[in-house]
Every structure is written in C-alpha cells, then in structure tokens.
C-alpha cells in the first residue's frame, strides 16, 4: 500500500503490520502480524525503513530473567518516516525522516540543557518494557496479547511508536543503511571521544577493542584532531579496517611478549596515552586502559582520562 495513502487513512487508528517477535529466550524470532496503536500525547508513530542488529539485541534475546521479558519486539538501531504524531508534538511532523534513540532528550531539564550531560532527569534511562510516560505498550498480537517494547524503540517491526524525547529529525538525503547506525553504536563511540572525553587536537589516544564502537571512537578522535590513535585488538585484520577511521598504530596483546599492553603503550608513547577508551566491557581491560594513561597534573587525576565508551552525542 502507498505510504502516503496509508498515513492519511490510518491517522489516529491502529495499524496492522508485520513484525519479528521474540517469543521465548534464545528461540528464533517469529514473523507475524501485529497491531500497532496510534500515538498518545508526546508520542510519534514511525514507519521503519531500515534497521540494524546490535549485540545488545542478542543479549536481551537470550535473557531468561528480568529485564529479559517476552514476548517482545527487539531492535533499537533504525531510521524511519513519521507516519503520525500524537498531541503536543511540535518537533516533527508527518513525513519527516527520523532516528529513534534509546537515550531520551526532553530538552527542558537541567541536564538536557547542559553541555556536560546527556542523561535526561525528566525521563531517566531504564530498561523498561513499556512507553516511558505511560508504562503501557503500543503493541498487541492478533489475539490481543501485549507485546513488550525494547529500549523505547522496538525497530524490528514495520511500524513502531516512540516518545518524542527519543526521536531525532535528520536529513532525508542520508543513506538509510548508514543512518540507522547513528541510533546506537556510532553515536556511542564518536560521542565518547568528542563529547565526553573532549579529545584535544594533537593528542594521543589508545582504544581497547576495535569493534564498531571502538572504530567509532577512532573516528571521533580523528575528527577532534588526535595526532596518534592506537588500536588494541586480538584480530590483526582490524588494523587495516581501522586505518580508514584514523588508526595510526596497532597493538596485538598476543605479540607483547612478556609485557602488558599498558607497558607497551607507555613505551610507544613515552609515558602513556593522553586519552584511553575501553570498548569491550571487561574489567581487566578497564584496568589496562587506566594503567596506560599519561600521568598529568594534580588538577587532573589520570582517571579522568580513561573512559568506558558509554557516552552518546546527545
């Protein structure tokens, strides 16, 4: 059906569409028809045009205990078109191209107005199975059973409903398969370097883990003007990929002989890296990232230079 005709005829009404539903932990997703309710005040209904898979989706798909909850519609990296809006929504209108985000941005609280925080106090982040303002779902299956939300996005469906605080309008010319990544991994990595660490021009950066987030950190550091960007990973092929994102050096922990990675980096840099990022999520690597931070003045404790890349652009 033509999307424009669907929008004009479905505004304010439930939409019947297809979704990939996670019924049980670890079992294959089930493609089925569902009902998506119209948006409530401060909500937006979005036609998803492209979505990607994040490892967080897999983690929650496998969870047998809360916050794993089923049946659920997973997915939180996406791009879509606004199909309709609820009352009190002025930021976007029907037809706008948007990215749904799992981090809220009310734009009103002190933290949203601050350049030093991206953690909204009005709508704090939590792993909720419902919409943030109403604690209810907008999804049901054809038998009337409630289908739970995931990270306030749920993009493994043709249509979803998202709170306006979790919606960002973007340029429609951006390639959808690239833009959908901005909802999670890319903003996490780039934002960690750019907004949280505020990487300085001419500095040296060390990145532990060169997955999508680690590579995004490299890109953020490059954009900030870092002169030397050192990548640490057990997969040597990541270095060639990483060069496209600004990596200048590579350390393979398996080839450090009897030295720790932090020792190698300290020797490479003549005292340590100016900024260190841990992008894997292992306590041992966090310790290594901290250990290879360059010692700075009393005013700036070295721990302020080691970052677990959990920041975002917003």
List descriptors.
five-stranded parallel sheet; disordered C terminus; Quinone Oxidoreductase, Chain A, domain 1; 314 residues; single chain; Rossmann fold
Describe the structure.
The protein is α/β, with parallel strands linked by helices. The chain contains 9 helices and 14 strands. The protein has a 5-stranded antiparallel β-sheet with strand order 8-3-4-5-9. Strands 12-11-10-13-14 form a 5-stranded parallel β-sheet, sandwiched between helices. Strands 1-2-6-7 form a 4-stranded antiparallel β-sheet, with no helix packed on it. Helix 7 (237-243) links the parallel strand 11 and strand 12 (249-251). Helix 5 (185-196) packs parallel to helix 6. It is elongated and about 65 Å long. Residues 297-304 and 309-314 have low confidence and may be disordered.
Give the helices and strands, then pairings.
Layout (H helix, E strand, L loop, with lengths): L2 H8 L4 E7 L8 E7 L6 E10 L2 H8 L14 E9 L11 E4 L9 H4 L25 E3 L4 E2 L11 E5 L3 E3 L6 H4 L5 H12 L7 E5 L3 H12 L4 E5 L4 H7 L5 E3 L9 H9 L5 E4 L4 H9 L14 E3 L6
Parallel strand pairs: 10-11, 10-13, 11-12, 13-14
Antiparallel strand pairs: 1-2, 2-6, 3-4, 3-8, 4-5, 5-9, 6-7
Helix pairs in contact: 5-6
InterPro entries: ADH-like_C (IPR013149), ADH-like_N (IPR013154), ADH_Zn_CS (IPR002328), GroES-like_sf (IPR011032), NAD(P)-bd_dom_sf (IPR036291)
Pfam families: ADH_N, ADH_zinc_N
Cofactor: Zn(2+)
């Amino acid at each position: 059906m033509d999307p424009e005709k669907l929008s004009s005829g479905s505004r304010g009404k439930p939409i019947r569409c297809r979704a990939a539903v996670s019924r049980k932990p670890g079992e294959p997703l089930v493609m089925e028809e569902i009902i998506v309710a119209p948006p409530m005040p401060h909500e937006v209904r979005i036609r998803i045009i492209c979505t990607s898979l994040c490892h967080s989706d897999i983690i929650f798909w496998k969870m047998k205990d809360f916050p794993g909850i089923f049946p659920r519609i997973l997915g939180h990296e996406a791009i879509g078109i606004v199909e309709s809006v609820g009352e009190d929504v002025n930021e976007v209108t029907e037809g706008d191209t948007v990215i749904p985000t799992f981090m809220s941005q009310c734009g009103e609280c002190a933290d949203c107005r601050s350049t030093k925080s991206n953690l909204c106090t009005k709508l704090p982040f939590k792993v909720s199975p419902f919409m943030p303002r109403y604690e209810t779902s907008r999804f049901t299956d054809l038998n009337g059973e409630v289908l739970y939300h995931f990270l306030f996005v749920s993009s493994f469906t043709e249509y979803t409903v998202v709170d306006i605080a979790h919606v960002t309008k973007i340029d429609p010319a951006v390639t959808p398969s690239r833009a959908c990544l901005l909802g999670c991994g890319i903003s996490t990595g780039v934002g960690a370097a750019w907004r949280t660490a505020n990487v300085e021009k001419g500095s040296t950066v060390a990145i532990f883990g060169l997955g999508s987030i680690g590579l995004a950190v490299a890109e953020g550091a490059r954009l900030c003007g870092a002169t030397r960007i050192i990548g640490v990973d057990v997969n040597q092929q990541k270095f060639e990929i990483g060069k496209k994102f600004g990596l200048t050096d590579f350390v393979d922990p398996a080839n450090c002989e009897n030295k720790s990675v932090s020792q190698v980096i300290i020797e490479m840099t003549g005292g340590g890296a100016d900024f260190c990022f841990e992008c894997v999520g292992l306590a041992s690597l966090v310790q290594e990232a901290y250990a290879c931070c360059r010692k700075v003045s009393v005013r700036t404790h070295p721990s302020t230079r080691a970052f677990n890349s959990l920041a975002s652009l917003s």
